[in-house]
User: What shape does this take?
Amino acid sequence: MGQASSVHGVWSKRWTFVLAATGSAVGLGNIWKFPYIAGENGGGAFVLVYLFCIAAIGIPIMMGEVLLGRMGRQSPVNTMLSLAKTVNASCSWVLVGVSGVLAGFFILSFYSVIAGWALAYVVKAVSGSFVDVSAQQIGQEFDALLHSPSTLLFWHSLFMLMTCTVIAKGINRGLQATVYILMPLLFALMLVMLGYSMTSGNFEAGAAFLFNFDPSKLSGEALLVAMGHAFFTLSLGMGAIMVYGAYMPANESIGKMVVAVGFLDTAVALAAGLVIFPIVFANQLDPGAGPGLMFVTLPIAFGQMPAGSVFATVFFVLVVFAAWSSSISLLEPAVAWLVEHRGLSRLSAAMFSGVACWLLGLGTVISFNVASEWTLWDKTFFDLLDFLASNVMLPLGGLAMAVFVAWILPLDRVREQLQDFSEGLLALMIFILKYVAPALVLAVFARSIGVL
Ligand code: TRP
Assistant: This one.
């Protein structure tokens, strides 16, 4: 049997796991990345494949990750170590935890810089700086932001400080209290924006773009992109979800909670698409603008609409909230490990890891300006970190977790954690984790290192 509790405590409220895991899942990936990759990969056809990947692969892997956490009740590093020992498996399974802590660290170092852009845009929106300016000027302002190391540094520092403040306060007074405030607000703000795009945007064109299923656009490439994004958006493969599972009370249903998280994450991604595209189409802008969609195209539209500054502010505050509740999950595995392993207080652990992550973030800050020419394999420092963490470490981490649950753990131990599963459902989940998920993850991995 797993322990009843962890040294860090367990969530004291019933909905915390769902709110915290949804907070982790819903982030820049949903609001910034999903709309533009959906646009680039055939709209509706891509969306359908993405939904399939979430339901058939993402959710089973997430269940596996949560149950590992709840069995181990420690940071991902010590959870993997102690579980491997109890089932007499090789101690090298600890590497899954170690690479997870590192991946979270890498991702947060650049995630914080990009979340900093959103912070900067809140100020721009409040001060009405999008109103009545030309599209060209808005593009130039974005470039100016990227080319100013000191401005990027300022917002990156502020965002890291916000993240560490929450982490330092501990899992109940910090993380739980924060997600209880941020998540309802995030959903409310999303509904405001959705209401706006339904009444003022070209909602039909936006919806058609996202949901018109054109099978001719369904490429093998789209399947792989969709699968990779399913991982990132559900925060899988690095232990963020595992550590949240470690704080989950023993009597809660992993199955129901995880399905709720997958559903909410998908709902927010679709809603983000339904907010952005109708506004884009109503203003005759380009839906395929790529990464600039949120920071350039959308502000142009905000600048031309009535009460645009208000909606722009609401929108960028929403993005900041989403990023904030994700960033805490990226740092928590490292902090939990420092507390366990080094006996540090949460405050020192948060400060130590926060400063280290902030330092690494400086590499991303300068990769947009002074060091934009320093490339390796045609990638800047930021691109390299993103590639290594998101396309290599996450898929491999997820694969290893699926293998550990389905091939290494005795079935009884898995059954213990999923008591409300029927035998059929349990067999289906094990089948997916044993064969389907590893095969698909390997395909994604192969593609990302250029083998396919
Ligand atoms: N899921 C978040 C997003 O969509 C990012 C994120 C948070 C993440 N924690 C993670 C990604 C852990 C991978 C692993 O923006």
User: Anything to note?
Assistant: Residues 16-448 form a domain with the Amino acid/polyamine transporter I fold (CATH 1.20.1740). The mean pLDDT is 90. The two ends are 43 Å apart (CA to CA). The pocket of tryptophan is lined by residues 24-25, 27-30, 107, 232-233, 235, 238, 240, 326, 329-330, 394 (CB under 6 Å).
